[in-house]
Amino acid sequence: MEAGTCHRTECAGRRLGIGNLGRTILLMISFALSIAPGHAAVESTGDGIRFTHIAPAALSVALAGDFNNWSATANPMGKDGDLWSAVIELEPGQHEYKFVVDGQWMADPENPVTVGEYGNSGITVSSEGALIAMKATSNTPLSPKLWIEGRTIALYLSEKSKGPDARYELHRPKLDMDLGFRVRVNEDMEAYILTNINNESENVDFYQTRLNFDRGSLIVNNPSIYLKAWDGDEIGIWDDPLHLIGDIGIYHHAYGFNAVGVQAKKKIRKFDFELIYSDDSEPGGTDHPGIEINTLGSEEHRVFLDGGLLGFKTDKVFDYRMNDTDNGMDVAALRVKRRLDRMFDGRIRLGVSYRLNRGFNPGSLAFMEVDTSDASRTTGELYEYGATFERAQFMGGDIQFDAAENLIIDLEYLHGSAWIETFSGSKSKAVLQTVAEEDTLAGRISRFTETSAVGGRDFDLDSSNRMWLGLQWDKGFFGAKWRLSMEYQDHDLDALAMSAMETPPHHNIENSVTIWRGEFNSAGFHFPLLGLAADTKIAFEFHNFSYADDAPWESQFWFDTRNLWLENGEHQVSYHRMTLLGGRDAFVWHPDLTFHLEQDHKVDLIYEGTFSAEGFDGKPKYLETILQLRGFIYEDWRLSCETRIAKYDDPVLELKESYHCSYLELAYQPADGITLALSYGVDPYVVDGVTNRYDKIGRDQYLFNQNANGATAESNFLGLRRIIERAEQALEDERRIQLEGILNF
Predict the structure, then answer these.
(1) Do 714 and 561 contact (CB within 8 A), yes or no?
(2) Distance of alpha carbon 594 from alpha carbon 661, whole angstroms
(3) Are strands 131-132 and 694-695 parallel, antiparallel or unpaired?
(4) Which residue in 110, 248, 420, 601 is a FRET match for 695, CA 20 to 30 A apart?
(5) Buried b (16+ CB within 10 A) or exposed e, 703-714
(6) Containing H/E element for 711?
(7) Do the beta carbons of residue 326 and residue 280 sit within 8 Å?
(8) Each residue of 219-239: pLDDT tens digit?
(9) What is the rounded distance in angstroms from the CA atom of residue 252 to the CA atom of residue 353?
């Protein structure tokens, strides 16, 4: 169940109108009771197929279906106590039927399979007269077209307080309940709604919570077309190697979360088309910062001229201000693919991709075109645009070649560009005046003509290229999976793109990077020296950066501020990369080993490592070791012990410390879908607030919440040492006991 927690701040305002927690629990109990198995079901007998229905108060029950032309009288059912039954000989194949109870037509409440537009119950009979299992389309007799699923998490956390009177204090208990509804409207249409109760996100007690809408979708799927309208639901990751849609951020999220839109897929002749249009659903963040024309006369834009007067350095001076947000962003994207059936036996697939982002980073722009005929370089035309937005456009193509069995080679090229779109503005003649302020001279802009209206114009920000060459080889050497790739990316950043930064250059900036990646993945790889076999994954990545000498700090590739290929708010600064910021080379190695020590109790020893250095032969600046021992100590009781050791050795940050933390968990699984766990320490597995699935990001989230994150690395790199030290020390000192119950249904 991809059930949802509501971590979005706006969820509290998206009510379904259900009163309080007590009423909600009663509703869920009624659902649970309705899902409980009954005592009647379709079964195969020696005389045919036996249909049964429990209806103690009914006066008559008949069986109608495609086998009797939907007659309500042809096959009356006999009654034995509360049970009505009939045995019918049916031809092999799929059949539809309903019960007619006192003249009312209804689907079989004990058959979870419905077919056809009218919600008829369905069965499939084999050539031997036996029933063939069909995929369930419903799990409740409330409606033959309704599937109900959910997840409930109850968490009690006791944390040791700080200070001389330290003691364990119980936090407000957390209740996170998901209730999802899948409604099969007909054979071609399905609706999905996920609702959520979460007292922590609403900051209230249990009894004050409500059932909130979290995400949903409506899907039309038939041989002619696939359509999906969604709100906050995922729509996946495109299959081009560079993933123009999806693969977002350090956790590689799919596209669609926190957005609303429409997705369409259709096959025309031998071409596969996919079209996406979406709009960001986050409220706010669309205000335009005010224009401050005197910034044009600031120190970075002016020079001293003869006589102690100030003048402009360049012929055009910009002041661009923006709110770094994509809350108003629209996305339109198109992907077209075709496999060449007549070339290389259909082993070549071609694809083209296009994407347009518009309406993000709302801003304001003022610029001065200096009158070069004026020897003082102080006069010119002043343009002011109080409302601007950014746009970005991406396009390119890819080739996938099935070179041999289990061997795929793929190639992709994409070009991207970003620009500022302005709307109506004003123009006036202006002059840079020299003003004495205390012991310095300052520049002040003064208009000396009336302003007049001007139309909008566009300003370039960035032009970028990306190229990819990759190889995928399954069952290669040692029977393992091999992945090798090379990616190249460059950016030609206009000086205007830098003007919102603290120390902008006055010319274009050209940055580039070449990235090499590799992965070896093998199940049961044998280590002769150890005499053991392990599931082995070894991955590496090497980044060779080329930055302009005066490139601003914010223009680094792992920051999303000026890398148009990254979604806003989704930087790529994970912990193993923090110490590599600003370097020319970055090498990261990830070895993962899982040793299956004992089969009966499923005892595993797991090692996860991370080594980060500048260059292949550089000394590691960050080294992380995670060791986990887990297994079943008795039937349904599982014990897990995990230890993390992190070592920093970064002379740039003057950070040379080691940190240690451990996690211990005892879990009981009395039945499928039910887990009760008692743990000590910071849980590595928590629900990802975006995807709403459990992921091993618990320690990441803890450290990020201590401000040791990408945003801090971009805005306060020199202070990152103390921030990392405080965050890591807090994680090491954290003492917490958790009791957690998880129910999936």
Answers:
(1) yes
(2) 21
(3) unpaired
(4) 601
(5) bbebebbbebbb
(6) helix 710-715
(7) yes
(8) 999 999 999 999 999 999 999
(9) 19
Is residue 425 within 8 Å of 384, Cβ to Cβ? yes
- Alpha carbons 673 and 178: distance in angstroms, whole number: 14
CB atoms within 10 A of CB 414: 23
Name the one residue in this structure whose structure tokens are 């045919």: 48
For residues 363-384, one letter each, b for 16 or more C-beta atoms within 10 angstroms of the residue's C-beta and e for the rest, the string is bbbbbbebbeeeeebbbbebbb
∠ CA 389-395-401, nearest 5°, is 155
Give me the phi and psi of 731, to 5 degrees please: -65, -40
Mean pLDDT of 256-262: 94
Q: How far is CA 255 from CA 397, 499, 570, in A?
A: 20, 30, 12
3-state secondary structure 301-364: HEEECHHHCEEECCCEEEEEEECCCCCCCEEEEEEEEEECCCCHHHCEEEEEEEEEEEEEEEEE
With contact defined as beta carbons under 8 Å apart, do 710 and 691 qualify?
no
Neighbours of 210 (CB within 10 A): 23
Digit-coded pLDDT (tens) for 154-189: 999 999 888 788 888 888 889 999 999 998 888 889
DSSP assignment letter at 710 = H
Name the pTM for this structure. 0.84
* Other CB atoms within 10 A of residue 565 CB: 18
Distance (Å, rounded) from C-alpha 641 to C-alpha 680?
10
CB-based contact 149:195 (threshold 8 Å): no
Report d(CA 496, CA 291) in Å as an integer.
Answer: 15
User: Angle at Cα 268 formed by Cα 267 and Cα 274, nearest 5°?
Assistant: 50
> Which residue type, as a one-letter code, is found at position 175?
L
Helix axes 720-733, 698-705, angle to 10 degrees: 130
Q: Tokens 């979870």 label which residue?
A: 112
Residue 406 gets which letter from DSSP? T
- Do residues 679 and 738 lie in contact, with contact meaning Cβ atoms separated by under 8 Å? yes
CA-closest candidate to residue 468, choices 566, 407, 405, 396: 396
How far apart are alpha carbons 304 and 298 in whole angstroms? 12
Q: Which two tokens stand for residue 331?
A: 């996305």
- SS3 for 537-577 is EEEEEEEEEECCCCCCHHHCCCCCCCCCCCCCCCCCCCHHH
Question: What per-residue confidence (pLDDT) applies to 510?
Answer: 95
Residue 252's CB: how many other CB atoms inside 10 A? 10
In tens, the pLDDT along 115-145 reads 887 889 999 999 999 999 998 888 776 677 8
CB 568 within 8 A of CB 360: yes
The long-range contacts involving 432-441, CB below 8 angstroms and separated by at least 24 positions, are 432/296, 432/297, 432/302, 432/310, 432/311, 432/312, 432/368, 432/378, 432/379, 433/378, 434/308, 434/309, 434/310, 441/304, 441/308, 441/310
Element (H, E) at 99: strand 93-101
C-alpha angle 9-12-13 in degrees, rounded to nearest 5: 105
